[in-house]
Task: inverse folding
Protein backbone atom coordinates (compact mmCIF):
# COMPACT_ATOMS: atom_id res chain seq x y z
CA UNK A 1 0.00 0.00 0.00
CA UNK A 2 1.32 3.44 -0.85
CA UNK A 3 1.18 5.95 1.94
CA UNK A 4 1.71 9.67 1.60
CA UNK A 5 4.95 9.27 3.56
CA UNK A 6 6.29 7.12 0.67
CA UNK A 7 5.68 9.81 -1.93
CA UNK A 8 8.90 11.79 -1.36
CA UNK A 9 10.93 8.57 -1.35
CA UNK A 10 9.33 7.47 -4.61
CA UNK A 11 10.00 10.88 -6.13
CA UNK A 12 13.64 10.72 -5.03
CA UNK A 13 14.03 7.25 -6.52
CA UNK A 14 12.49 8.46 -9.78
CA UNK A 15 14.90 11.40 -9.86
CA UNK A 16 17.87 9.06 -9.38
CA UNK A 17 16.61 6.79 -12.15
CA UNK A 18 16.01 9.74 -14.46
CA UNK A 19 19.69 10.74 -14.45
CA UNK A 20 20.94 7.21 -15.11
CA UNK A 21 21.34 5.86 -18.61
CA UNK A 22 22.88 3.07 -20.59
CA UNK A 23 24.82 4.14 -23.66
CA UNK A 24 25.58 1.12 -25.80
CA UNK A 25 28.40 1.57 -28.30
CA UNK A 26 28.08 -1.08 -30.99
CA UNK A 27 30.53 -1.53 -33.86
CA UNK A 28 33.18 -3.74 -35.41
CA UNK A 29 36.33 -4.86 -33.60
CA UNK A 30 38.83 -1.95 -33.55
CA UNK A 31 36.11 0.57 -34.49
CA UNK A 32 37.06 2.71 -31.49
CA UNK A 33 34.26 1.77 -29.07
CA UNK A 34 36.48 1.37 -26.00
CA UNK A 35 38.58 4.43 -26.85
CA UNK A 36 35.56 6.71 -27.30
CA UNK A 37 33.80 5.32 -24.21
CA UNK A 38 36.91 5.94 -22.12
CA UNK A 39 37.17 9.54 -23.34
CA UNK A 40 33.49 10.18 -22.63
CA UNK A 41 33.75 8.55 -19.18
CA UNK A 42 36.64 10.82 -18.27
CA UNK A 43 34.64 13.91 -19.19
CA UNK A 44 31.48 12.77 -17.42
CA UNK A 45 33.39 11.88 -14.25
CA UNK A 46 35.06 15.28 -14.28
CA UNK A 47 31.57 16.80 -14.38
CA UNK A 48 30.55 14.80 -11.31
CA UNK A 49 28.54 11.99 -12.90
CA UNK A 50 28.77 8.44 -11.65
CA UNK A 51 30.03 6.37 -14.55
CA UNK A 52 30.72 2.70 -15.16
CA UNK A 53 32.17 1.16 -18.29
CA UNK A 54 31.02 -2.38 -19.03
CA UNK A 55 33.53 -3.33 -21.70
CA UNK A 56 32.73 -6.42 -23.74
CA UNK A 57 36.28 -7.74 -23.55
CA UNK A 58 36.54 -7.27 -19.79
CA UNK A 59 33.13 -8.84 -19.13
CA UNK A 60 34.23 -11.90 -21.07
CA UNK A 61 37.08 -12.41 -18.59
CA UNK A 62 34.79 -12.80 -15.58
CA UNK A 63 31.02 -12.43 -15.81
CA UNK A 64 30.92 -14.22 -19.17
CA UNK A 65 34.00 -16.42 -18.81
CA UNK A 66 33.53 -19.66 -20.69
CA UNK A 67 31.27 -18.19 -23.34
CA UNK A 68 32.44 -18.45 -26.93
CA UNK A 69 31.48 -16.65 -30.10
CA UNK A 70 28.56 -18.66 -31.37
CA UNK A 71 25.41 -16.71 -32.02
CA UNK A 72 23.89 -18.10 -28.82
CA UNK A 73 26.93 -17.31 -26.66
CA UNK A 74 27.24 -13.82 -28.09
CA UNK A 75 23.59 -13.22 -27.28
CA UNK A 76 24.00 -14.55 -23.72
CA UNK A 77 26.97 -12.23 -23.21
CA UNK A 78 24.96 -9.24 -24.44
CA UNK A 79 21.93 -10.06 -22.29
CA UNK A 80 24.14 -10.35 -19.20
CA UNK A 81 25.73 -7.01 -19.89
CA UNK A 82 22.31 -5.52 -20.59
CA UNK A 83 21.00 -6.84 -17.28
CA UNK A 84 23.83 -5.35 -15.24
CA UNK A 85 23.69 -2.10 -17.24
CA UNK A 86 20.01 -1.65 -16.49
CA UNK A 87 20.53 -2.29 -12.78
CA UNK A 88 23.24 0.35 -12.62
CA UNK A 89 21.45 2.86 -14.85
CA UNK A 90 18.26 2.56 -12.81
CA UNK A 91 20.37 3.64 -9.83
CA UNK A 92 21.58 6.82 -11.45
CA UNK A 93 24.76 5.57 -13.06
CA UNK A 94 25.82 6.49 -16.59
CA UNK A 95 26.71 3.10 -18.01
CA UNK A 96 28.86 3.01 -21.10
CA UNK A 97 28.86 -0.36 -22.85
CA UNK A 98 31.46 -0.62 -25.60
CA UNK A 99 30.44 -4.05 -26.83
CA UNK A 100 30.34 -5.30 -30.45
CA UNK A 101 26.78 -6.70 -30.09
CA UNK A 102 26.51 -7.80 -33.73
CA UNK A 103 22.88 -8.94 -33.74
CA UNK A 104 19.99 -6.50 -34.02
CA UNK A 105 17.59 -8.67 -32.04
CA UNK A 106 20.06 -9.05 -29.14
CA UNK A 107 20.37 -5.26 -28.99
CA UNK A 108 16.59 -4.91 -29.26
CA UNK A 109 16.14 -7.21 -26.25
CA UNK A 110 18.47 -5.03 -24.18
CA UNK A 111 16.60 -1.91 -25.28
CA UNK A 112 13.30 -3.58 -24.38
CA UNK A 113 14.56 -4.51 -20.90
CA UNK A 114 15.39 -0.87 -20.31
CA UNK A 115 12.09 0.35 -21.75
CA UNK A 116 10.11 -2.05 -19.56
CA UNK A 117 11.74 -0.51 -16.51
CA UNK A 118 11.60 3.08 -17.77
CA UNK A 119 15.39 3.27 -17.75
CA UNK A 120 17.12 5.51 -20.30
CA UNK A 121 18.82 3.67 -23.12
CA UNK A 122 20.77 5.06 -26.07
CA UNK A 123 22.19 3.11 -28.97
CA UNK A 124 25.31 4.49 -30.62
CA UNK A 125 26.82 3.01 -33.75
CA UNK A 126 30.56 3.49 -33.97
CA UNK A 127 30.56 3.18 -37.72
CA UNK A 128 34.20 2.78 -38.64
CA UNK A 129 34.33 0.71 -41.85
CA UNK A 130 35.94 -2.71 -41.84
CA UNK A 131 38.73 -1.49 -44.17
CA UNK A 132 39.88 0.96 -41.46
CA UNK A 133 39.30 -1.43 -38.55
CA UNK A 134 41.34 -4.18 -40.19
CA UNK A 135 44.32 -1.83 -40.58
CA UNK A 136 44.06 -0.68 -36.94
CA UNK A 137 43.67 -4.29 -35.81
CA UNK A 138 44.29 -3.48 -32.14
CA UNK A 139 44.15 -7.10 -31.02
CA UNK A 140 45.53 -8.71 -34.15
CA UNK A 141 42.21 -10.43 -34.84
CA UNK A 142 41.93 -9.41 -38.49
CA UNK A 143 45.47 -10.70 -39.14
CA UNK A 144 44.69 -13.98 -37.39
CA UNK A 145 41.52 -14.40 -39.41
CA UNK A 146 43.38 -13.67 -42.64
CA UNK A 147 46.01 -16.25 -41.67
CA UNK A 148 43.31 -18.84 -41.02
CA UNK A 149 44.12 -19.02 -37.29
CA UNK A 150 40.64 -17.94 -36.21
CA UNK A 151 37.23 -17.82 -37.83
CA UNK A 152 33.94 -16.16 -36.98
CA UNK A 153 35.33 -12.62 -36.86
CA UNK A 154 32.54 -10.07 -36.78
CA UNK A 155 32.35 -8.05 -39.98
CA UNK A 156 34.63 -10.45 -41.87
CA UNK A 157 33.32 -14.02 -41.71
CA UNK A 158 30.63 -13.50 -39.07
CA UNK A 159 27.62 -11.18 -39.37
CA UNK A 160 27.45 -7.60 -38.20
CA UNK A 161 23.96 -6.17 -38.39
CA UNK A 162 24.48 -2.41 -38.34
CA UNK A 163 21.76 -0.54 -36.44
CA UNK A 164 19.13 0.84 -38.79
CA UNK A 165 18.22 3.85 -36.66
CA UNK A 166 20.65 4.40 -33.78
CA UNK A 167 20.32 7.42 -31.51
CA UNK A 168 23.67 8.48 -32.91
CA UNK A 169 25.94 7.22 -35.64
CA UNK A 170 29.56 8.21 -35.18
CA UNK A 171 31.73 8.19 -38.28
CA UNK A 172 34.69 7.66 -36.00
CA UNK A 173 37.27 7.36 -38.78
CA UNK A 174 36.55 10.87 -40.07
CA UNK A 175 37.06 12.69 -36.77
CA UNK A 176 39.25 12.65 -33.70
CA UNK A 177 38.46 10.70 -30.53
CA UNK A 178 37.77 14.00 -28.77
CA UNK A 179 35.29 14.99 -31.48
CA UNK A 180 33.50 11.65 -31.22
CA UNK A 181 33.32 11.90 -27.43
CA UNK A 182 32.01 15.46 -27.79
CA UNK A 183 29.27 14.31 -30.17
CA UNK A 184 28.20 11.69 -27.65
CA UNK A 185 28.29 14.20 -24.84
CA UNK A 186 26.10 16.52 -26.91
CA UNK A 187 23.58 13.71 -27.36
CA UNK A 188 23.44 13.18 -23.59
CA UNK A 189 22.97 16.91 -23.08
CA UNK A 190 20.20 17.01 -25.69
CA UNK A 191 18.41 14.18 -23.84
CA UNK A 192 18.78 15.98 -20.52
CA UNK A 193 21.30 13.48 -19.20
CA UNK A 194 24.47 15.57 -18.98
N1 LIG B 1 39.39 8.73 -34.70
C1 LIG B 1 39.53 7.65 -33.93
N2 LIG B 1 38.52 7.27 -33.11
C2 LIG B 1 38.66 6.18 -32.32
N3 LIG B 1 39.78 5.40 -32.27
C3 LIG B 1 40.80 5.75 -33.06
C4 LIG B 1 40.72 6.87 -33.94
N4 LIG B 1 41.88 6.97 -34.62
C5 LIG B 1 42.65 5.95 -34.21
N5 LIG B 1 42.04 5.22 -33.26
C6 LIG B 1 42.62 4.05 -32.61
O1 LIG B 1 41.86 2.91 -32.99
C7 LIG B 1 41.91 1.95 -31.95
C8 LIG B 1 40.50 1.55 -31.58
O2 LIG B 1 40.58 0.52 -30.62
P1 LIG B 1 39.46 0.21 -29.57
O3 LIG B 1 38.92 1.48 -28.99
O4 LIG B 1 40.02 -0.80 -28.62
O5 LIG B 1 38.36 -0.45 -30.50
P2 LIG B 1 37.12 -1.37 -30.10
O6 LIG B 1 36.88 -1.22 -28.64
O7 LIG B 1 36.02 -0.84 -30.96
O8 LIG B 1 37.53 -2.76 -30.49
C9 LIG B 1 42.66 2.57 -30.78
O9 LIG B 1 44.00 2.15 -30.80
C10 LIG B 1 42.55 4.07 -31.10
O10 LIG B 1 43.62 4.79 -30.55
MG1 LIG C 1 36.83 -2.61 -27.09
Result:
Amino acid sequence: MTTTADAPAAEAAAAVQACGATVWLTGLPSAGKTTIATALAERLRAEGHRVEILDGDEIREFLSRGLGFTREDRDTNIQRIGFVAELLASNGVKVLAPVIAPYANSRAAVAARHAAKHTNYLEVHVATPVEVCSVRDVKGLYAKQAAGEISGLTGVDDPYEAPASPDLRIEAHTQTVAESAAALHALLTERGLA
